[in-house]
Amino acid sequence: MMENGKSIRVEISAGTVFKILLVLFCAFLLYYLLDLVLVILLSIVIAAAVEPATRWFARFHVPRVLAVLTVYVLTVLVFAVLVPVFVFPIIADLSDLVTGLPDKLSSLPLFSNPPGAISVFAGKLSPNDIWSGLGSGLSAIPHGVAETAKLVFGSFFQLILVVVISFYLAVQPRGIESFLRLAAPVTKEKYVLGLWQRSQKKIGMWMQGQILLGLIIGILVFLGLTIFQVEHALLLAILAALFELIPFFGPVLSAVPAVLLAFSSSPTLGLVVVGFYIIIQQFENHLIYPLVVRKIVGVPPLLVIISLIVGAQLAGFIGLLLAVPLATVMMEMLGDFEKSKYLVERTQEKANV
Fold it and tell me: Where are the alpha helices (H) located in the chain, listed in sequence order?
């Protein structure tokens, strides 16, 4: 290669070629074993979530194995109670909402007598057409016996793996740290353990904030919609609590079905519900966040939005569960990189002086 009339010779050593091939091989292996990697990562997250309860039992001198087993059994029992008491009624409520919503929306002026340019698309935007399109999309789901069995048992097998691996990591004292020591290079072992401890703390603070925020908002929405006699108040309250996971846009999105249902009953009720959700939003922004959530949230809201979108796109439901933890780890790594870069620059400036 020539540069300013001088030849420059570029040599690539065998070691460099070997490293490139090794990186490519690891990338291929990671892609090939992606499902297993996701299972292991989810197991680590679950084991980390179980750790605080395990430590609480340890205060009463409960053996670690028994403490972890108790946490798992209690979790199963809670789900066994929640499913018939709450989940089944919510599913029935959701079925009623989906069944009756097209007719209710058809009574709104937007669909029955759309103004201006909207009238051009009114036929295409009718609720019945939207629901028909949704039904067509659902019919595309594999319905063959073999494909359905493969889908169900594949998911069930992954669930069993997650339970077994997370239980093993939780039972071992410092089980996650021991696994990270095995997986990390010796030279990076100390850094990896420190990175995990810092990330785990931030993830825990974020989870505390989201659970507390969702619980408060869900209760307030349920009480308000019940007082205003809006249909499906429990379902809409749960929706509001879950959508708090999405910063900025979540509260607005959760308000849309409630406002539509209220307007389908009467314009006055619709305006009241709009005002109610605005009050809830102001209450959240000026009271809950400053006093409670902001003190314990450890993950930036924009990072949450981006990570949830990317996680869902790449790995579906498991990607959603892993999105924020992995984004938090990457945020910590980028922060460490910036700090090391700053220290190098400062060292070079001092050396030049």
Answer: 14-32, 34-58, 64-82, 88-106, 109-112, 127-139, 145-171, 175-183, 189-227, 233-243, 250-265, 267-283, 294-296, 301-352
C-alpha 244/C-alpha 215 separation (Å) is 10
Span 161-193, pLDDT tens digits: 888 888 888 888 878 888 888 777 778 888 888
The single-letter code of the amino acid at 70 is T
Q: Cα torsion at 136, 259, 249, 245 (round to 10°)?
A: -80
Name the CA dihedral angle for 51, 56, 57, 63, rounded to a multiple of 10 degrees: 60
Backbone angles phi, psi at 3, to 5 degrees: -145, 115
Q: What is the DSSP letter of 142?
A: -
17-60 per-position pLDDT tens digit: 677 777 777 777 777 777 788 888 888 888 888 888 888 888 88
Q: Which amino acid is at 119?
A: S
Using a 10 angstrom Cβ sphere, with 0-12 exposed, 13-18 middle and 19 or more buried, the burial of residue 298 is: middle
What is d(CA 110, CA 102) in angstroms, rounded to the nearest whole number? 13
d(C-alpha 96, C-alpha 281), whole Å: 28
Q: What is the dihedral of CA 111, 252, 98, 227, to 10 degrees?
A: -100
Q: Are 301 and 271 in contact (CB under 8 A)?
A: no
Are the C-beta atoms of residues 18 and 12 closer than 8 Å to each other? no
Q: DSSP class of residue 59?
A: T
Torsion of CA 267, 272, 276, 282, to 10 degrees: 90
Tokens of 180: 């990270």
Q: State the DSSP code for 85.
A: I
Asked if 252 contacts 280 with a C-beta cutoff of 8 angstroms, the reply is: no
Q: Which residues of 81-103 are buried (b: 16+ CB within 10 A; e: fewer)?
A: eeeeeeeeebeebeeebeeebbe
